Amino acid sequence: MKKLLLTACCLISLSSFGQKLLFGVAYYDEYMPYERLDKDIAMMKAAHINVVRIAESTWATEEPSDSVYNFTHIDRVLDAMHKAGISVIVGTPTYAVPAWLAKKYPDVLAATPWGQNQFGPRQNMDITNPHYRYYAERIIRKILEHVKDHPAIIGYQVDNETKAYNTAGPNVQKAFVEYLKKKFVTLDSVNNAFGLNYWSNRVSAWDDFPSVNGSVNASVKAEFAKFQRGLVTEFLAWQAKIVREYKRPEQFITQNFDLSWKGYSYGIQDEVDHFAAARALDIAGVDIYHPSQHQLTGTEISLGGDLARSMKGGKNYLVMETEAQGFANWTPYPGQLRLQAFSHLAGGADMVSYWHWASIHNSAETYWKGLLSHDFAPNPTYNEAITIGADFERLSPNLLHLHKKNEAAIFFSNEANTAYNSWGTPEKYNDVMRPFYDALYRMNIGVDFIDPSSDNFDQYKLIVVPALYAASDALLQRLNQYVENGGHIVYTFKSGFSNENVQVRYTPQPGVINAVTGNYYNEFVVPEHVGLKNDPFGAKDNEIKYWMELLTPTTAKVLAYYDHAQWGNYAAVTRNQYGKGTATYIGFMPGNILCEKIMENCAKEAGIDHQLHFPLITKTGTNTAGHTIHYLFNYSDTSQTLIYPYETGKELLSGKTVLQKSSLVLAPWDVKIIENN
Amino acid sequence: MKKLLLTACCLISLSSFGQKLLFGVAYYDEYMPYERLDKDIAMMKAAHINVVRIAESTWATEEPSDSVYNFTHIDRVLDAMHKAGISVIVGTPTYAVPAWLAKKYPDVLAATPWGQNQFGPRQNMDITNPHYRYYAERIIRKILEHVKDHPAIIGYQVDNETKAYNTAGPNVQKAFVEYLKKKFVTLDSVNNAFGLNYWSNRVSAWDDFPSVNGSVNASVKAEFAKFQRGLVTEFLAWQAKIVREYKRPEQFITQNFDLSWKGYSYGIQDEVDHFAAARALDIAGVDIYHPSQHQLTGTEISLGGDLARSMKGGKNYLVMETEAQGFANWTPYPGQLRLQAFSHLAGGADMVSYWHWASIHNSAETYWKGLLSHDFAPNPTYNEAITIGADFERLSPNLLHLHKKNEAAIFFSNEANTAYNSWGTPEKYNDVMRPFYDALYRMNIGVDFIDPSSDNFDQYKLIVVPALYAASDALLQRLNQYVENGGHIVYTFKSGFSNENVQVRYTPQPGVINAVTGNYYNEFVVPEHVGLKNDPFGAKDNEIKYWMELLTPTTAKVLAYYDHAQWGNYAAVTRNQYGKGTATYIGFMPGNILCEKIMENCAKEAGIDHQLHFPLITKTGTNTAGHTIHYLFNYSDTSQTLIYPYETGKELLSGKTVLQKSSLVLAPWDVKIIENN
Amino acid sequence: MKKLLLTACCLISLSSFGQKLLFGVAYYDEYMPYERLDKDIAMMKAAHINVVRIAESTWATEEPSDSVYNFTHIDRVLDAMHKAGISVIVGTPTYAVPAWLAKKYPDVLAATPWGQNQFGPRQNMDITNPHYRYYAERIIRKILEHVKDHPAIIGYQVDNETKAYNTAGPNVQKAFVEYLKKKFVTLDSVNNAFGLNYWSNRVSAWDDFPSVNGSVNASVKAEFAKFQRGLVTEFLAWQAKIVREYKRPEQFITQNFDLSWKGYSYGIQDEVDHFAAARALDIAGVDIYHPSQHQLTGTEISLGGDLARSMKGGKNYLVMETEAQGFANWTPYPGQLRLQAFSHLAGGADMVSYWHWASIHNSAETYWKGLLSHDFAPNPTYNEAITIGADFERLSPNLLHLHKKNEAAIFFSNEANTAYNSWGTPEKYNDVMRPFYDALYRMNIGVDFIDPSSDNFDQYKLIVVPALYAASDALLQRLNQYVENGGHIVYTFKSGFSNENVQVRYTPQPGVINAVTGNYYNEFVVPEHVGLKNDPFGAKDNEIKYWMELLTPTTAKVLAYYDHAQWGNYAAVTRNQYGKGTATYIGFMPGNILCEKIMENCAKEAGIDHQLHFPLITKTGTNTAGHTIHYLFNYSDTSQTLIYPYETGKELLSGKTVLQKSSLVLAPWDVKIIENN
């Protein structure tokens, strides 16, 4: 019976993007050690794969010599996929230049602070180099001209995981000085903003402006990092503009944005301004890689999804890449691949695409395995993907275009990220941000990400602001206004500390926001064996890390004091009523347990409800029919029993009705999806 | 009553150097984010600050373009300080070159073994470069010409924390070869002295002499290090000579010497020959930075002071820089800033000057905080400084020009330092020297530092010689003579091992000094789980580290044997009578507890008395009135009760009489100063 | 009586190589700080030293300027040694170039991926550089012409510890491309074999072939490493050819091969193809350095000997260098130097030569001590050498030319070594090989080494194949054939994984050998807290490290399953009957205890007998008289009692008869040598 339904479902034609859940893989015909195309497509069809991404890494195959083109691989894959009813996303191949180009114009390879890049790896070019731009534009146009009418193509990916790759040669330096001229107009402004009198760094002629490579000035380096992020934004917009000349109206343009990397997708990417760069795109794409096996928590899936969704203001997004088997320590346990796939959907993804179809037999990523191992035979991971593909196909009408509405947001800032990371502590911006994100995740409080370009602060009951190290007065005043309007804000230590030029404020700290936080400090220390007095949040474990500001309340009430012989009279956490809202200020980095307890307190203050707790993860949204969808995930190795807290609905995978308040059992690494009418 | 006295004291005019204790800060008008001068001076006056150091880091402000001068900041500070009765030390700005100079003459930036330096940080230049010298001389003369008559100036600092900064380009190499020619005359002498036959390094033409940068020859590298130290000596003498053309007779010339750095001032500086370099100066200056909070022991204050005092043969010295708030992990506990200030005086300092007045808002040292935080508001550290300034002012007649006379000395050697550090062990020369220094410190045995240029060996009852790895026969014979004359010497392992060319001696070890030590060895091993047999010094913890020489006594008596299955018949510590004195030889590096016990034994042998023990530190000297001053410090977090061991006197801070043998209580981090008539 | 015998023995003239055990030292007259030759020779004679190696490091002394020659040191040493009846091995001095050559032709210094080498250390040259070759050939010919008739010389060492020293400049790159052309003929073959389509690395013109320095392609890098090993083979053959023009028929040509280094001689040298390079030589030479004192196990002596012996197909070899005192942590305990010397003989060495005679007084190796310390006086190590020399001389007829015949072999591969080391794990090829070697050593199972060039597989009952990561189909089929013929083979994880081009196989894993292993896998994971189910080998400690292949048997029986909640149904160790033999496959890296237990199981399966166990080590061979020699070693600090398991024979050191099954006591670090008639 179920089988029949499935078969029927498969016959429904979901030919264009936006009408079905996409289940895909990256596919490299160029890398195959022998003729595989038909066999691969048959295996894809068996797994209900309905989209592949191609061509983004293989410029040298597509243009083997200067102005000699060979689109054989593209053509045969497009034709074969189309024949099989599988859609294709075509990537521009510009993030990996061919050897002949690097030989002809060695300056195509970026000059970095550590010397000029060598040919070999990808992402080694100067994205501002005119020769690079000339040849990149030419290959893009050649490919687009060639494929633009192909019916298999549903969209384009411009470049891949684009960054400025530390390009910092003389031409980039020159452009940076031009940028400074435009932004600051006079050298006096630059000297003052950046404090260049320090250590004889004052510059009196634009021509003398020294390379940033040797700079020790945090303001200069932060401005250069911002300039480099601007190069990425400009580069992607430039590519998107070219592609837009060719693409059909129903086709989309996306990119494959990646998060900052710590062996896996970890946090805010400090080399790209995702919100700005995404403006030139139609839809956000993201790659998400995460720990697995007993370390699988779903956090990075949730985080990457929340970020990608927030890039385009809450619109659904594409998971351009995520792990199938991945590294040896990522090979999923039985059930985990399913759990992961539906977790992506629960964040608002309309596509889940694995990197990649089949494991590679040469070069650098032979241990980053695809759905298939090197032997191309079915394996437990592939076999599990078959069930996912079938469920995606069957449940597409129910699960596509999940609309999310969250009451909480994390406020991040690229400027703060760069500035925080440069002041010398071993822990970085994301090490402050993540524990707050993770605490909310464990408590099942859904979040969006917002940044200084966002104009929707007021839609959130709670905004959490980690380590807003660098920010303009105007921005801080906007955040003050949010509180005055009735919002609840949570600041951590270091917020408001310096202005947009990474000039430490000389007004009382925390600068500008202290009107709202109702406290001040001018001394800070490094905590050693310090806790909170009298366990004020009931955390039992009151670990304090990284930093410790010696807070004195003005109008705020003190939620917690430090437990320290010398500094026990200073406040550690304060809360202040301001206008219609409140501001909580945390003068230190809490350990994970304490962090969650503080966030629980703040969520309650902000009036945010939440149900269940990790390892039971629940995500909610509204589908296109206007029905509420509740995802329930068991992120653990043991069965979990829960009282189903939401309204009665239908569990979509099993087709069974789930009554409110009934007892539900989730097997290890299990998922349930309940639709309420 | 006390208040009245204070006021009276303040009215005494102490206008010129040498007549009052100096309490100061480094002051950078150039770095201020807004007009602060009058307000800053008012706050300085409130803290009884009577001296500021200016101008040493800001060449680019003083000469913003080639031959364009702007002394506004210098002038306004000099005038304002003078008006306020605050003295000024003017620094030459040569340790940080302007961008225009580095652009005009890129060779100004030193070529090091790791490539050419970039513009950005300070201390990146080739101090031998003719362009650098030309422009450095010109800015020095311009400034001096401009300020020489200003009444506020009490002295000049030439350059700052000067070193050779690893300069090793072709011009330096050429100069080094000229130096070798002059020193060794023939290449045969060089080949033999340095053992250049080894690995085909023999040189047969001066023009072929290869760059030291690639050398693996310890002798060559040590000679080059000595040559580089010579560059520093020459450079400072050159600057001092220029300044001396302008300065008034009552003004002094100093430098700000720094110790070797290990996150704080740690030991002998191997890049500068302090004793040689100080000859061109009128008074020694030093910067001393040290751990704080629960890690504050006073050791580095004592060490830096003993070194600085010894640079000019026991004369009082200036603490040009020390921490106020400093790093976040240095923010002082209540009371510690006072304790530190008086500890400096107890070593013979005539000035204590903080780096720096106010925390910096940009660039690289925003977390190296001054007396004021970034908000310029009073804070606990500043408030404590107020009490120090008041006491300095009031007690200046009693405490100025403390004359110290110690019975013990540490013999150090720059040559040994370099040579020891290059032979491949992870622990360095200072890691051997410090535990011996620290042991004497904890036992309240005051020490001077002496080096191969010293001619006053005989004034000490005890000379401790750590790791004298490289030394000429003549030097060792002078040390032998010291013992023969009645001195007691303590040698550690590795002493006498190689000659002045870092050629290991082929005579029995320890070379030349074995006449005096009465022992020999020709095998050495690395200790693993070895102790001393039968706990000979009552240390209980007989930890042996780093190295282990298998000693055999000839005429010496054995104080300790190794506790080892195979090498238990070898001596570990020997003592030998020689002439009127004795020599103790320690064949290994003792752990800290054992080290102190051995030094206690040696002090007793040398007839040196000592009172109290860490955390109770006591320092003694004679003031200008010829009275003995006893400082008592409590370097701990708990109250300490002691029986006052010295003659009856007056405690200067409280004005109370302290009777000999009476019980005294020192609060945590407290200080008492007793003057005996 | 014994004395008389000794004297008699010493009178036997053993003047030419091959007729006596050689006991030697490296001797550097050039390095002596004063005239020592006669005194040194007297001390050598006292120690029965009968050979010295000279001249291999001192080109700059021999040719102090371009075409100026000075063979004084060579001549006087040759003459003096000859007079004393001590033989000489002359080394060509080419591994350390003189300063004048590096100055004249800077390109003599190799350009490496990290920049061009500097003058200073040895082994810094480009061994392919034409200038280097010209001057190297000239000095070789000059020396050979000069000494060729000298009667003291028994052989020549060409160069020293030769490698390619990472030479990778444009000329080397060019030669590499020529090599590729010859090997692969077409670029298409290269592109396919190396998978260059990946990341746009495809090359379409030979001129575009990019430098390997920047490559991320494991296949390219492995091929380049193989090419570099080929440079070493060619270079040594080139030198040997030159020397062969001069040498007399009875003289030999050797080299001083070194193992891979991990603070001591550790494993297979991945920079040299020892088997190929040794073909140009008459006899294999090796240097062996090893931990000592309580860490002395004899393993490296055994390993280095087995490797050296295997280089020339089982022929006796020369230990060109081994430690006398060595580093401070190597200074031998009493008895250890003797134990070591006889351990070398037990492996088949005909010479044991110390590096070096006397400790060096300058430069880089002053802490790598010789038989004599820096003082040239007798010391415990030298005194022990006297007894060794005497015993060598006395027992030479019994112990020379030991013939070894082992039943087991370790199969290693330079290609697998390189390939394994490049795939990203922290543990390396030798970290897999060594524990298997060490287990066999501890069990007293003698082994030979074989590699892909060996044609004698069938002579072994057991072949152990660690991590044969890269291998051609043909090689794997030869190994399959070995099993079919009746051999027993043991494969570890990763064997057969990729082909000779480091292309991962797309056939089921383990590729090609799975016909024989009777299992397959296509998933692998990183073990965390995994063991083996039910302790199948009785190891108690079932530690699993590094890697974990999820094996499924086809025809094999399962010897062990993983003890893991998710993967407990996968096999960990399998054994398969194939033809007349069996194949054991280990899907993971066992801990040392488990490794030995598995090897015990495999030895039993292969029908290999073994006696005693570490610390009692026994080695066996046949002497020239056809008698069996049993060495018994006690590698421990405590006396060991054993039942002598072999036939009755005479213990050569004591002259006493040892009866089969009698009880024998070996003192700590003791050796006994029993000859059976």
From TrEMBL, chains A, B, C:
Domain Glycoside hydrolase family 42 N-terminal intervals: 27-394
Entry's EC annotation: 3.2.1.23
Domain (Beta-galactosidase trimerisation): residue spans on this chain: 407-608
Enzyme class, first EC level, given as a word: hydrolase
Active site (UniProt): E161, E321
Record has Metal-binding as a keyword: yes
The protein's name: Beta-galactosidase
Provenance organism: Chitinophaga sancti
